[in-house]
Write a structure and sequence with these properties.
One of its GO terms (cellular component) is cytosol. Residues 71-278 form the Alpha/beta hydrolase fold-3 domain. This is Alpha/beta hydrolase fold domain-containing protein. Keywords: Hydrolase. With 304 residues, this protein is an alpha/beta fold. It has a single domain (8-301), classed as Alpha/Beta hydrolase fold, catalytic domain (Rossmann fold). 39% of the residues lie in helices and 18% in strands. It has eleven helices and eight strands. It has helices at residues 8-20, 30-37, 84-97, 116-130, 132-135, 149-164, 185-188, 199-209, 248-260, 277-280, 285-301, and strands spanning 40-46, 53-59, 67-73, 100-105, 137-147, 172-175, 237-242, 265-270. A hairpin with a 6-residue loop joins β1 and β2. α1 crosses α8, α2 crosses α3 and α4 (116-130) crosses α6 (149-164). The protein is globular, with a radius of gyration of 18 Å. The N and C termini lie far apart (39 Å).
């Protein structure tokens, strides 16, 4: 797909429409709020080439001075922002794994179009690896993970770090990731259009992300277009796919590429679930979270 450029006013109006009309509405509950009451949440501003990146360090009671770390990237098509549900999800992961969790509030399109969020988050992760002692974490036990657009950031940051050798996470968790900005949404997974992520909404996200349509096939935005010869040796992956999600095809495609490169990959498809099910606690979310926790514990137990 070649997204036509929009005027700044058109972009702002489209972004406001996407932000003010969510297809899923998160409802907090006393049980979820109780998770936040059991952890300590501290704002951390981390330097990057685009200015400080706002993060929330979520610490469970038992975390020691050399704890593992899970870095969590929220979804939202690179347009919708960080929400309470992201910190609640981070608290749940922290409490179940004993790891600290860094919940990332990165810059958004269209105010900051590609590659700003990618570069900001890459710099942030690199800083974390080189300043782990300041966060009370073990640099040999850092995992990355994210949902939808956050899964994209996880995959692309891990990919670039593999290319540069700057750092290596013990695990990349790709939760119903967006991995292909070039293919029209209607052609991605034929026959599947989800009310949570309808085709035109996906096209709108792409219009706001891309300043240059030629960048749609950039592997650091669309990792399904990376050179397979440059994949061997990349960090292990857990790939969670929603069976009723139009993004299912690209997630499975990338998982297949990783397997072909000799990467250790766990791929699980939740046939009865929609896009966004994990962070919103829908359908098979409990099973998906169990799998994520198990994979993180295993990865943290065998540091690189």
């Amino acid at each position: 797909m070649t997204p036509e450029d929009l005027s700044p006013l058109d972009r702002a109006q489209l972004a406001e429409k996407l932000r003010s009309n969510p297809t899923l509405t998160f409802r907090n509950t006393p049980e979820q709020q109780a998770l936040l009451d059991r952890v300590t949440v501290t704002e951390k501003m981390i330097p990057t080439r685009h200015g400080d990146c706002r993060t929330l360090l979520v610490t469970p009671p038992e975390a020691g001075a050399n704890a593992p770390l899970f870095i969590n990237f929220h979804g939202g098509g690179f347009v919708r922002g960080h929400e309470l549900r992201d910190t609640i999800f981070s608290a749940a992961i922290a409490l179940r794994t004993g790891a600290r969790v860094l919940d990332v509030d990165y810059r958004l399109a269209p105010e900051h179009r590609f590659p700003v969020a990618f570069e900001e988050c890459y710099d942030m992760v690199a800083w974390v690896f080189s300043h782990a002692d300041q966060l009370g974490i073990d640099p040999g036990r850092i995992a990355l993970g994210g949902h939808s657009a956050g899964g994209n950031l996880t995959a692309t940051i891990t990919l670039k770090a593999h290319h540069t050798g700057d750092f290596r996470p013990v695990l990349q968790v790709l939760d119903y990731p967006f991995l292909d900005a070039a293919t029209d949404p209607e052609d991605k997974t034929p026959g599947i259009e989800d009310a949570v992520l309808p085709y035109e909404r996906m096209r709108s996200f792409n219009r706001l992300i891309l300043a240059d349509p030629a960048e749609a096939r950039n592997p650091y935005l669309s990792p399904v277009f990376t050179d397979p010869a440059r994949l061997p040796g990349i960090a292990p992956a857990l790939v969670l796919v929603a069976g009723l999600d139009p993004l299912a095809g690209e997630a499975e495609r990338y998982a297949t590429m990783l397997v072909a490169a000799g990467t250790e990959v766990r791929l699980r498809k939740f046939l009865n679930s929609r896009h966004g099910f994990v962070t919103n606690g829908l359908e098979e979310a409990a099973e998906a979270r169990d799998l994520m926790v198990s994979a993180l514990k295993e990865a943290f137990a065998r540091p690189i």
